[in-house]
Structures are given as structure tokens and as C-alpha cells.
Amino acid sequence: MEKEVKNSVTRSKLFLIALCVLAAIPRFVNFQSHLLFLDDQGRDAVVVKRILINHDVTLLGPRTSVGDMFLGPLYYYAMVPFLAMTYPNPVGPALAIAILGVITTLLVYKLGSEMVGKRAAGVAAVLFTSAPWVISLSRFSWQPNPAPFVGLLLMYFLYRGVKEHKLKWWFAAEMCVVVLLQLHYVALLSGLSFLIVYLFSELHLARKKARQFLKNTFIVGAAGFFMLFVSQLPLIAFDLRHDGIIRKGFSSFSREMSSQTSHTAIEKMAFFIEDVQGIGMRLMVELLGFSKEQRFVNLLLLGAVSLASILVVVQSHHRNRNKEGVLILVSFLVPAIIGLTLYRNNIHEHYFAYLFPTVFLFVGLLLDRLMSLSKFLIVPVLAIVITGVSYNLLSLPYWKPSQGMTMNDMKAITEMVLEKNTDLGRYNVSLLNDNREYRAMKYRYFFEVSSQPPLDEYSYSDLDTLIVIVENNEQPLDAPIYEIQSFLKEVESAPHTIEKMSYNDEVVQVYVMKKER
Description:
Elements: H1 2-28, H2 39-53, H3 74-86, H4 91-116, H5 118-130, H6 132-136, H7 147-164, H8 167-183, H9 189-202, H10 204-208, H11 210-241, H12 245-258, H13 265-284, H14 295-319, H15 323-342, H16 356-373, H17 378-395, H18 407-420, E1 427-432, H19 441-448, E2 465-470, H20 482-491, E3 497-503, E4 508-514
Helix pairs in contact: 1-4, 1-5, 2-3, 2-19, 3-4, 4-5, 4-7, 5-16, 5-17, 7-8, 7-9, 7-15, 8-9, 8-11, 9-15, 13-14, 13-15, 14-15, 14-16, 15-16, 18-19
């Protein structure tokens, strides 16, 4: 018996080592060559650099892509120690995200083993190592990217709360919800999942110990409100100082989302069902790596997954098998699918990143139950899993160095400009490209950490020099954007000197515009 236990422990350790390697390789191979460093990443790096070097604290996180709203600043402050480790190279926070991605994969197995069983969690973790979107969000620094890790912890804390009925687990789960709200507002759906699980778990006390139930609910509610209030204090302070700009953004967004259409009730229901199908397909099929192009095949797979899900839920309820774990997974998936369906704007994968571990654990559970039907199904199911993982890994673009513009190229362009122009005076930098990144945040970071830092991204008047970087062959003198036109108006004619430089076979042109002094 003791020998069997030791062998089991050894197998578990070997599996964890193999899982760690399988998760790490696609997340770190050619890391800097493929590192995504766009306007959002440049903006974040600039903000964190100012916190770290200039001690310029901020009350705000990034502006949301929809509505005039802001996220909290938690992610910025979490980036600080990792930028400090590699400063001035901004790769530190991205490396931290990649490491967190590997840790999340290991926790899918370790924590998932308690929730749905070792085999189901093992299958889920193996699938998690190779999923294209999961890997993509693990390879660069961005506000939503820690959400899978926090979402997994939230599920686990809720699971322990259901199992043990102790307040500390509910408090820990509330903390996770608060953190998720700092990463993306769509994660507000996780609060609904928390509420469903808590009420389902604790309502039995209402019959036997009504006073205890009311007391616990009051304590949990008060603790959650306090955590949320403290986490939002920076935003509240900013809003009060700036004429309610965030509240106005929320109000405008709410009106937009609640606006009525001219469709009939039957048409709305038809659209709703169609959207549920679409969201379900993205979550339960395409997230695993299935191509969006094969819609019919994906629809069949979604139907199979839906039917299997119903059978698993019913079976878990009657046989009391992984009952709590199934409750948690369903309480996350169903509200999320409905909530995302009601969201009337474009939905990107990072919106539901907190659900990634949920999806893979649920799929692992379904495949585990399929293998439990007959021992003859074990080998075919595992063969399909290994084939899918191999296909996903081989299809990743990271095995060869990137052929596009890299972060090192942006740094080289900056150094070239500064080397050729040692007397810029009061200057700023702008960018012309197809993404409308006019304030050049991805280049600005490298200018800021140089010995000749520019003015900040809001100061485009009273300049001596304007540096315009062009990635799309536009003519800067004709560009109808504030960052350039405000400078040209002060000159009242063509700038006194325009020095044009090219980089990498004229993929990027740099114009240095100077006033006459």
C-alpha cells in the first residue's frame, strides 16, 4: 500500500514537471522577437516608468475601449517591481505574465484535481498548455492578461466555501472578484457567479439557522462592499476632482446598452438564441483551438458538448460525484454566456479571459466522464486530446522569429533619431499608422527613458521640435490630426527644417520638424 502511494506521488510529480515544460516552451520561445508592444503596452510602460522613476503616482488605470470610463490602477502598481527588474527594458512585466501563465496551467491541474478529479484536471491542464488564445494572452503585458489566474483562484475559493462553509473562503473569493474588476469590467459577471454559488450553498442555513444565515450574509456582504469601496477609492477621488467624468461615462454607456431596437419580441428572442449559440461556440469550441472557419463542424461540436453537459450535471446531482465542482463550473459558464450575449458591442477573447480555466476544466470533466463509460474509450479519447494539442502547438507562429516590427526595432529607431539630433529643445513625438496611435506611446517609452525625454503626451503646443514617425506612408504635413496640426499652426508655414530618415528599407520613415529659433 505504501509503495503504491509513493508511486502515485512520483507519477504526479513527473506529470507536473512535464506539464510545466509543455506550458513554458510555447510561452517563452522567441519571446522578445514576438513580444507585442503596441500603443496600450507603451502607455502602460510609460505610466509605470513614471511611478518607478519619477514617483508620479496615478489614481487611474487605462481608459476602457467602450465608453469614457477607466479601470482601476492596480495593474500599474503590480507592474512596478517587474519593470524595476529589467529597467529600462520594458520586457519585465511581460515576462511576469508569461511566468504567471505557466503557474496558472499548473494550478489548473492542482486545484482542478480537488474540484473535478485528477484525470479531468489533467486533461484540462494539457489542453490549456496549447490553446492559441490562452498562449497569446500569456506572452505580453496587458491589463486583462492575469484574469485566468485570478478567475481560477475565485473558482477554487468558492469551491472551498461550498465544502467548508467558512467565512474566510467567501472573503477570499470576494477579493478575487474585486481584483477582476480592476482588470476588465466584463468580469463583473464573476460577481453574479459568486452570488449564485453563495446563495445556493448557504440557503440551507435559512431553514435551520435563519439568524446565523442572516448574520453570515450581512458579514459577507459588508466585507465585499468594503473591499469594493477601498479598491475603487482612487477612481472615486479622480471622479470627484474632475466633474464626474467617470460617472458620466458609465451613464452614457448604460443608455447605449439599454437602448431599444425596433425588432419585435419574437425577433429579439431569435437574435438572443442565435447569439447564445455564437457565444457558446466561441467559449466551448473555438477557445480550444478549433478554427472559426469551420462553422458547421463547430456547431455540431457545440451540440455534442451541450448534450454531454446536461448529462454530466444530472449525473453529478444524482450520484453526488464532484457535485460541488460541477456547481461552480456551471455557475460560471451559464451567467457568462447569457451576460456576454446581452452585451451589444463587439466581444473580444480577453473580455472573458477569467473564464479560460472554467472552460478547460469543464471540457476536461466531459472527456473524463466519456472515458468512464468504457475502458475501451480511454485510448481513443486521449489520442484525440494529444492530436489536438500537437496540432495547436505546431500551428503557433512563435517557432520562427518574427518578420514584422519588433520592440527592439522601435528602440533602434528612437536611438537613431536621438543620435542624429542632439539639440531638440522642447520636443514631442507623434505617430502615423493605421491604428491611429497618434501619441506614439510605444515609441514614447524609449524616448522617455533616454537622456533627452520629450514633453508628456498632452503637450503639443509651444514646441521647438516635433518628431513624426510614419508607418503607413502618410505625408505628415497633410495629416489632419491635432498632434501635428497644432505644431504646424504655430509655425504658420512649412517647418523651418524637415529631416527625413528611413529605417528598415523604408518600412518606417521619421520626420524631424523644427521651428526657426
